[in-house]
Amino acid sequence: MYFSSNKNAESRRNYYFDLYKSDYLKGDFQDPIKLSDTLNTRRYEAEVFISPDENMIIYCSAKKEGFGKGDLYISFKNKDGHWDTPSNLGSCINTEENEICPFVSSDGKYLFYSSN
Q: What distance in Å separates the CA atoms of residue 3 and residue 30, rounded to the nearest whole number?
């Protein structure tokens, strides 16, 4: 299970969310593991989608260099099993507002998301 949480945020920075993973083993979810700093920053990372093979991740981040309040970014796992530097999905997806809740169809052909 991949998810976001602000459990480690300072009280005055409750918008500081990070991406986590929890493996499901023998009927129980394991303790969450924070994903790498390649994906997580000192800003908002949330609204995560992970591909069924866990090699692609799409999520919302509020990076300063983005197009708006929250942009969708994509990253792929490299051969070493680490996440590559995320890429902004660009101005044909992202606007000056928030783009959130990404989801890719099971056939991999369509990206669905919410936008202001």
A: 13
Bridge partners of 72, per DSSP, are: 60
What CATH number does the domain located at 2-115 have?
Answer: 2.120.10.30
pLDDT band at 12 (very low <50, low <70, confident <90, very high): low
Q: Can you give the pTM of this predicted structure?
A: 0.92
Tokens of 40: 């997580």
> What confidence score (pLDDT) does residue 13 get?
66
Token pair for 92: 């044909």
Q: Where are the domains of the chain?
A: 2-115
Q: 35 CB contacts (<8 Å, ≥6 apart)?
A: 2, 18, 19, 20, 21, 83
Q: Please provide the DSSP assignment of 63-106 as one string.
A: -TTSSSSBEEEEEEB-TTSPBPPPEE--TTT--SSBEEEEEE-T
Mean pLDDT of 79-99: 96
Angstrom distance (rounded) from CA 31 to CA 48: 18
Round to whole Å and give the CA distance between 45 and 5. 9
